[in-house]
Amino acid sequence: MLTDNDLHRLAVFLGSCAMILIVLYHFLEVNAKDDEDDTVPATKNSKNGSTDAASRTTSTAAAGGSSVCGGGKDR
Predict the structure, then answer these.
(1) Half-sphere exposure (CA, 13 Å, Cβ side) for 13?
(2) Are 52 and 41 in contact (CB under 8 A)?
(3) Per-residue pLDDT tens digits for 20-67
(4) CA dihedral 28, 31, 37, 42 (to 10 degrees)
(5) pTM of the full predicted structure?
């Protein structure tokens, strides 16, 4: 049968292993490189005359699109 000391050591060991795995997972997740290969061909293949996302964003802002900060001139 397990004693209280054995259960305590087992709980401390398993808790330590869990914390090490959590820290390792977060370290690997933060330092993972993103795959940019999927997004690059979408912007280069504009055979039908469509524009990419960057030019659409600038044209929307030039056409009077709403801004987030507003500049504070209306107040």
Answers:
(1) 6
(2) no
(3) 999 999 999 999 998 876 555 555 555 665 555 555 555 555 566 555
(4) 110
(5) 0.44
